[in-house]
Every structure is written in C-alpha cells, then in structure tokens.
Amino acid sequence: MKKYSFKNDYTEGCHPNILEALIKTNLSQQNGYGYDDHCQEAKLLIQQKMNNNNTDIHFVSGGTQANLLVISSILRPHESVISAETGHIFTNETGAIEATGHKVHGLVTSDGKLKPEHIQSVLDVHTNKPHQVKQKLVYISNSTEIGTIYNKRELQELSEFCKSNGLYLFMDGARLGQALTSEINDLTLEDIANLTDVFYLGGTKNGALLGEAIIITNDQLKEEFGFHIKQKGAMLAKGRLLGIQFSELMKNDLYFDLAKHSNVQAMKIKSAFQKKGFQFLSETFTNQIFPILSNSQIEKLAENFDFYVWKKINEEHSAIRIITSWATPDQIVDDFIININQL
Question: Can you tell me the distance from the alpha carbon of 247 to that of 53, in angstroms, rounded to the nearest whole number?
Fold first, then answer.
C-alpha cells in the first residue's frame, strides 16, 4: 500500500474548483502575458481583500522565483539582504540570491523570526562604508520555515525599525494563508499590505497547481518591475493559467478556507503527540509541526507514512517535520493518530 505523504503541502494537484475553471475557460481566447481578463479579475479580488487599490500585483510560477525577482529588483549591486538562518533564501534556494551578486546575512534566531535587535546586530558591524556591503532589505517569512508566525505588534516593530533605518521589508508569503488563519493570529491581509513594502500570497502550497501573487505596496518599487520578470524568464505567456487560479482561490474566501483546513489537521496531530508527552522543536500553530522522536519511533511511523527527518537532536533523537495540506483528509489524520498512540 502506498504511504501517505506528510512531506510537503503540494503533494496534491489543485482544488477541483480550479480544475473546473481551467477546463471551462480552455477554449476562450485571451490576451497573453498577464493582460487577460482572469488576471485582471484576480488582481481586483486580491485588492478588495486587502482593502487597498494602490498596489501592483504580478503573478509568477513559484516561491523561489518570487524571492529572486523581488530581491534582485530592489537591490543595487553593492546592497545586501538580511534574513533568519532558517529563511528560505538562505537555506533552500541554491544560492539564487547570491548568484545575482547580493550577500545574504543569515542570523540565528530561536523561532525563525527576525526582531529589530537581530537586524541592528548586522548594521552595527557594517559601518565601514564604502568598504562593506550596504544593507537595504529585510526578508521575513510568514509563516516561517519552522511554522511560527508574526503577530501584529512584532510586524509593526519591524516595519517601524526598517523605515527608520532606510530598509525595505519583504515578506515571503508562501504559507501566508496558514499564517493568517492560525488560531493565534491577529494580523489581517490589510495589516500586512500596510506594514510591508512588498509581499506575496502563495498559491502553490495552498490549493493552486502553481503560482504566487507578488504584491508591491511601496510606490518606489513598482516602476519597471515587469522588466525584471521578463528578463529573469518569469513572464508566463499564457498568464491566464495563473489568473484563473487566483480568481478561484479569492472567490468566497476559498484561499483562507483551504489554509484553515490544513492548520486544523496539523493541530489534531500536534495534540496527539502532546498527549503522549512528546516535545517539539518549535511551538507552532500552523500546518507545520516538528515533534522530537527517538530513532526507533521514527522508523515505526515511517512504515506507513512519509515525512522528513528535519534535524538531529542527539545520537538517539531527531525532530521530524510533518506538513498537512489543504486536502489532507480526516481519515488519514485519524489513522496517523492511531499510529502515534501506538508508539
């Protein structure tokens, strides 16, 4: 019997509404390169969710592509970006940012989140200008790569710090749906639009076949962004494929319903581990959890389920990463909990 995979949140294809819309519109002619009716509708729907019409929205195919486009378009050749060490641009993008000639300052944090004092520590040791790179951009993820989220106070403090120090603030939103629907979240999409210079809504990890919506709120960063998309090979000729998907995700709050489902499923599993007395690598309330198990317990769970062994704790224990998706069924979660209870 094929194992059920908890390895990532894009093991499934796409939500049936999207597939149906793609089929229904398949033979309808549309303009290319994102000038189609579907992309325009999707942009309008996203702006309505943010209560902000003064934004530029661009659809691209994936998260690494979105990060590369945003960061390389903002930074001048001598400028750098600050990130947590767990940040995707620092750990899992094959040096994509460095390949464009920009240094990434990776900072150790306890929870995957950056605070003003983290950023200040980089600024303090880069005062010998012009002999050192100039920090210009702060990169954060919400939810983070270890499942934690920013609250409103934290994001406000970061935003104020960045503004006072001439830094741009960029939020990686590959799992922004999960952050916004977390049971402990107090941020809104409107808050994020107001407190960041640029961010993106991730579709690939939340019901779409592929696609991220880059949202630029800072007027200084809007001009000529399209040139960067084209030059980096990210301008999809049949842009309708992305527009259709985001239109469907935004309608009737489907995007947020799917994200909430993935969170709820993860919290069921988290509760089962807690009841058995297991510890966690980080305290999370999104669709990623990191329980710490013995090697023998990991082997036992792996007989029926797939997941990543995330971090070695000691010779006998490791943290595993379990990710639930927008489509993770109740029956699978129930079966997994039975296996947990047998450890």
Answer: 16
Please give the Cα distance from 186 to 142 (Å, whole number).
Answer: 13
Confidence class for position 1, pLDDT limits 50, 70, 90: low
Task: With 0.90 as the threshold, say if the pTM is over it.
Answer: yes
* Residue in the structure block whose two tokens are 């990130």: 83
Beta bridge partners, 289, equal 322
The dihedral region occupied by 325, where left means phi > 0, alpha psi between -120 and 50, and beta the remainder, is beta
pLDDT tens sequence across 158-215: 999 999 999 999 999 999 999 999 999 999 999 999 999 999 999 999 999 999 999 9
Cβ atoms of residues 313 and 279 within 8 Å: no
User: For residues 46 and 49, what is the distance between their CA atoms, to the nearest angstrom?
Assistant: 5
Q: What is the secondary structure of 161-188 as a DSSP string?
A: HHHHTT-EEEEE-TTHHHHHTSTT----
Beta strand segments in the chain, E: 4-5, 56-60, 79-84, 104-107, 134-141, 168-172, 198-202, 212-216, 288-289, 292-294, 305-306, 308-312, 317-323
How far is residue 207's CA from residue 258's CA, in Å, rounded to a whole number? Answer: 7
Q: Is 253 left (phi over 0), alpha (psi -120 to 50) or beta?
A: left
| Alpha-carbon gap, residue 147 to 142, rounded angstroms | 8
What is the rounded CA–CA span in Å between residue 258 and residue 104? 33
Question: Cα–Cα–Cα angle for 97, 170, 184, nearest 5°?
Answer: 125
* Cβ 147 vs Cβ 184: under 8 Å: no
What is the distance in angstroms between the CA of the first residue and the CA of the last residue of the chain?
A: 21
Residue with tokens 């990710």: 323
**Sign of torsion, CA 52 53 54 59?**
positive
Identify whether the C-beta of residue 72 lies closer than 8 Å to the C-beta of residue 139. no
Residues forming a β-bridge with 311:
319
Greatest Cα-to-Cα distance within the chain, rounded to the nearest angstrom? 61
pLDDT higher than threshold 90 for residue 2: no
